Amino acid sequence: MEDILIASKVTKRFGGLTAVRDVSLAVPKRARLGIIGPNGAGKTTLFNLFTGELNTTAGTIHFENQPLQGLKPHAISKKGIGRTFQIVRVFDELPVYDNILIGAIAKDLHFTPSKEQHQAVEQTLEMVKLQDHRNVMAKHLTLSAKKRVGLAVALVGKPRLLLLDECMAGLTFVEIDEMLVLLRKINAEIGITLVVVEHVMKVVMELCERIVVLASGEKIAEGTPREVANDRKVIDVYLGDNKS
How many other CB atoms are there within 10 angstroms of residue 69's CB atom? Predict the structure, then answer.
């Protein structure tokens, strides 16, 4: 299957600190890839390199066979990459509908909302099951609903690749199961490729077909959920070496 995203020997340095070192990975179209690792492993930095919020120090990143280096975040978004954030970014003083509409406007840089943008908002509201909250001010939403608004803002721009940065953090097990159903539907029915950074192992193990493991900015393992769960390097990184 053709790859939608290819990173080759990607490195990011901040002065004397190397946050990401020689990371290579390939994401097939319509795949569900997980990226895991301890805090400080470089996961969010890697996402920021994919979206242009940071520039690579070395290495290359290609999306649909086109290089992303040097492009600004809005240009990368326009190419078809969407993302969510660890900390939900919503406008608390605006209703749900307007939050999502702003996402559509930002994607197209078309500041007078068009009929097509309003239609995209309606479709997205239905997709994430927020129709009944359309007029609710964002500040009154539960964390779970805010997470769905963040997801909707990413989806309304109709990305072909969606980067999900800890979108399950803080949710209950029931809410996680509901989000998993939604993400599988987005992947299977719409065909959006998913790359998931997540600390909730239940999410990664149940949703992702393959998993990349980072530690101290380097890729230490890649494989199926079962292969990664049984990898000695991964066990040592998460649990420490208990042989002594």
Answer: 12
